[in-house]
Amino acid sequence: MTFSEAAPTTTPIDRPALREFTDRLDFALDPFQVESCAALEDGHGVLVCAPTGAGKTIVGEFAVHLALAAGTKCFYTTPIKALSNQKFADLVAVHGADSIGLLTGDSSINPSAPVVVMTTEVVRNMIYANSPALNGLSHVVMDEVHFLADRFRGAVWEEVILHLEPSVKVVSLSATVSNAEEFGDWIKTVRGDTTVVVDDHRPIPLWQHMLVGNRIFDLFERTPRNGERPQVNSELTRYIKQREMVSDHESPHGRRGRGGPPRRGRPAGTISRPDLIARLDRDGLLPAIGFIFSRAGCEAALDQCVRSGLNLLQPAQAVQVEEVVNRYVGDLTEADQDVLNVDTWRAGLMRGLAAHHAGMLPAFRHAVEELFVRGLVRAVFATETLALGINMPARSVVLERLVKYNGEAHVDLTPGEFTQLTGRAGRRGIDVEGHAVVVWMPELDPTRVAGLAGARTFPLRSSFAPEYNMAINLIGRLGLAGAKNLLERSFAQFQTDRSVVGQHRKIDTALRTLGKIDVELSGRASSVGVEPGDLAIENDVAAADDHTPTDDYDGFLGYMRLREVIRTRERELKFEKRMTAQANTVDELSALKRGHVIALHGGRHRGLAVVIEPATERRDPKPMVLCEDAWCGRVGTADFLNPPEVLGNMRLPRTVDRRTGRGRRDLASSLRATGIDVPRGRQSRRSPAADDRELGLLRSRLRAHPAHQLPAGDELFRLAERRNRVEREITALTESVSKRTSTLSITFDRIVGVLTELGYLVDGPDGVVVTDSGRTLSRVYSESDLLICECIRAQVWDALTPPELAAVVSAVVYESRRDSYSGPDLVTGHREVRDALQDTHRAWRTLAHLESRHNVGVTREPDAGFATAMYTWASGRSLAEALAAAGERGRPLPAGDFVRWSRQVIDLLEQIRMSAGGEGRLARSAKSAVGCIKRGVVAVELG
Prior knowledge:
The protein is an alpha/beta fold. It contains 33 helices and 25 strands. Helices cover 48% and strands 12% of the residues. Helix 17 (468-488) runs antiparallel to helix 24.
């Protein structure tokens, strides 16, 4: 492994292929590029770790050059389709259209070319299908290989690295990670001869700043002391303190005005977005990317700048923008352009301003990317998806906040995320330096920003885990033993095995500490006339499970164990009481009928509630209720401390209007008018421990123990507590080592158990073999792969028309952005679709029950939130109707999301067609459904 921090070199290149390659370049290669390319020419694989914008892709392009020169094949893989499209265009410009192909889920261009650009999943699927396209393959470039840490898709990268033939040279290109040596060691282990090159040098220096009000400060002192980390700029710290003092002094009046409420919007004292962009323009810091972790925030920022009259372009530049915009929207009908607000989008671009996020139509994003690269868009407000490898470098990057929503909660940016975002600043060959600007907000400490900017610890962690499709393909290719052997060669297992060495060291240290404590404890026990007891390491769990009085409680340590057994028994009794109450609650919730009136005592909604829809799921019943405050929703066991009691009955109309505010308020008024009262008073709180005979015997033995007479503050108790802590640490470490060394194997065995019970695998004379159903599963690549195959096998979807099939299939790919109800009854007016969705849900419930029995992660529940929109679109209706049908809270679904989900439905329909052998009613319906969807904006994006 080599590390480089040097500047570009003019050292003569002594490799003929590399010299030929560099002759067509108009710049000199950096040392790390020369070393990586030389290793490739010498026949080695390479792993290159370098900062964003350092030029890693040059190494991948040299692999393309080598393959073309030798008459072999090269696959250039990327994590996202947009990056594949971009790299395809780059390589075509150099090598010509005949030599370069493109394969993504959406596009297939010249797939038999000697060089094919593709998403990583495509090459994985080729490997599992034993595709003839793999013949003659000499190089595979894995761009952004650090994606293997992605918890949803990361396993694909490891699968490809593990499965490729040994003769194929793998070129892995990664962002800078702190454990590059570990990653490189793993690649060497599984791929053989591999050169690891790590370069920490950033070719374009990056300056960190903070914008406070209208002033830009350097984040760090310009002249750090020798050998010390850079210090936070003292002038910046002083200025922020002065502003906070002034703000605190003025806050009762200055912020609120005449006693009114605080103004909504940006915090007081922060700069407006139009002023921010204008300030960057004056300072020569454009083009800039402003990262805002919200789609609505990006659109709002753009709207503010456009309404302010800000214009960053000259008239001649605006004419060029108009030409590009017309080219991208030329295939859209006028009606679709109206729905997509093309005029509003165009107005921003004509001023050099744009938004960029996944909710935009892909064509709009591509236009923004092209205009930005050409210098015709000067400021972009973007979500973090822009930082995922797309080549859109800027002179400056602006971060308004250091918190983002990750789909579950608002979390702080990690140092790795901060580096990925700010790494976009500085265009090689254009800028002398890049600039990262963090906008100061009240209570944002500069030292926190400095911690993110100065951190250099971004470890790469494997997300590899067995799944159904993977298990079937591994067993089909390698057999059961071979599949397990491959799992043991994964990066996940490699990291686990290395970490276990550290765990063993911790166990040894803890054992030595325990020995010292035992010597001290024995001496103290002798001094107070008490036997120390058995000093052997106890298994606390086993001791707690054995409540029979024995000589195990002799001596002082026996007394401490007895106390622990009593505490454990008390916890068990409380748990048993809680489980009994929960079981009773499940029974009572399942028994509730329409019109039953109950009382809610917990959460935000208290008082009377009437059941308007009984529970349908027996294991986790959640009836729909309407409360006195007009709230309507489903309640479950978590909403009740005690089983619900039916307080009375209320007559309900045949159809309850629960979807409108007026309907809910009218029903709540009728509920209050029933005269039913919420019962008052509290139930008995008598502890179950009071009546437990076993616990009584244990407590009697405790009181009779000789050590019970010792004062509570005696030194022995402190030593015993220390001993217990160390003993628990040893037990936990030992269990951790055992679990970590076998987690992948255990998970794989459980998945095999599910597949065997369902008949996808069977025991044959030579071991486990894949059945015909299993071969169908091997061709389905989806998060819900097994559920899809169960529906195919049970012919759940066979009788559906193409639009109906598209609607139902959408439920196994779509996932609502918000936590909202997504059951089959969301679909109204289409009985066949609703019935098929209900059958699909029944198949899911059966599968989920089986997965729970085998301790396998449960497949995600189907989501019908996109089904009506998909049916509307596939039936030939307008884009406006489809977007409205998929909207939430009265807002239409963003066009970009509509196209993205439509693409995924098309992809799954194609898989279903192929899995069904391309024949039969289901295969024909799937093929027709693809044609129904692939029109209008969807067809424009798919080409």
